[in-house]
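Mods, move this if it's the wrong board.
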Amino acid sequence: MSDVDFLVKLRDGATMIADACQERLEKLRPRSQTDTMADTEEIHWTTEIGGKGEYERSDDKDNPRHQALLKILSAHQGAVRSDNWFIWTFDDGVTIGRKRLG
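Not the wrong board. Structure tokens:
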């Protein structure tokens, strides 16, 4: 086998590994994070200033969208990043915060 043949086979093998990794990452990525932001616009938010700057906060616990977002956050250890937002649950387990990224 020539050096060229070896390099071609090595490249093809690396491409197969990269493709397999990409497929696995797509399967592991939580699907609900992409859909989260469509739901958050129907939640009542108030602007607050915290230790790390401005963020929005919601105590809209009677809103079904708020409750659904709490379930999503609970499934992701209390925080997600989605559509240029960082969204988290406060320690009380009911209040949600969100801060625009970037």
